[in-house]
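Sanity check

After download, print the first record. It should look like this:
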Amino acid sequence: MILITGATGLTGSAVVREFVRRGRPARALVRNPDKARALTAVSGVEVVQGDLLVPDTLAPALEGIDTVVLISSADNRMVEAQCTLIDAAVAAGVGRIVKVSGLGPDLSSPFRFGRYHAQVEQYLQAAGVGWTLLRPSQFMQTYYREAPTMLADGTFAQPLGDTRLAPVDVQDVAEIAYATATGDGHASKTFEITGPQALTMTEICEVLSSVVGKPIRYVDIAPEEKRKRLLDAGIPPRFADDLDDLFRLRRNGGPESRVDIKVFEQLGLRPTSFAEFAERSAAVFQGTSEPEQLWASGWQNADVSVQGSGSGV
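Expected C-alpha cells:
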C-alpha cells in the first residue's frame, strides 16, 4: 500500500487522481477531513486523518505502508513537518519515500523554499530508508491566478524581463510520481522535471491570447513594483518577500529556465506542452470556470475511467 501525504493540495490531489485513474488503491493522509470529501467518495482511496507535525497521528496512517509519496505545504514549518514524517516512516518500516521537491534545491539558495527542500533531501538521504527525489519546475497551474487580471485589462504583469521558463503540468508530475512510486528501478535516483519548452512571458501571453480570444500583453515590471502589488493584494509580507526572492532568481536565469525531459523519455511518458495545458484549461482562463471545478471534473472522469473501460482519461 502507498501513502500520499498532502492529499488535498494541488500536487497531492493530482497524485491521488492518478492512482485512481490507474485503478491502484492508495491511502491519502489529510489534516482536515472536511477538505477531503471529494476523496472519500472515490473508490480505491482510503482517507486517514493525520498531521505531519504530530508524530502520534502518523503511526496509524503508516501501518502496512511500503512506500510514501511525500508532499506538504510550503510554509514556515515545512522542514520540521517533512522530517517528522521521515522519522515516523523509518520507525514503521516503510521501504521507500518518494519526495516531491523543487527544481534547484540548494542550501545557499536565495529562495527560502529552495533551502528548505535541500535540507529535507539531505535528511531523507541519510535516514536509512529508500528514497527517490522528484524536482519539478514551476507548475503551469500557477498561471490560473493571473486569469482575472488578464481578462480585466488584457495584461500580464511580472518582473521577469525576457527570462524563459519551462513550466510543467502538475498532471505530468502526478504521472511521474505514480510511475516512480509503483515501479522498480527508481530507488536512490533524482529526477528533474520540466515542461517541453522554455517560454518567455511574451510567448506565454501569445498562447493565452489564442485561448481567451482577446489579446493578452506582457508587461515587464520591476521586482519592487511586483512586491508592492502583492502587499496591496493582501499577501503577507513574509510570503511577498519569498515571491520577490523567487522572481529575482528566475529573472537572473534560474534552474527553471532550461528544459529537462529525460525522465519522460525514461518512463515512456509524453510531457504536456503549455499550449495543450491552456487549451484544456480554457474555461478557467476565459473566466467561465474555477480551477476547483476542473479538479471536480477530473475526479468524475477518473472515477468513470476506473469503473468503466479502464482506459484512463
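If your output differs, re-run the checksum step. Summary of this record's structure: The longest strand covers residues 130-136.
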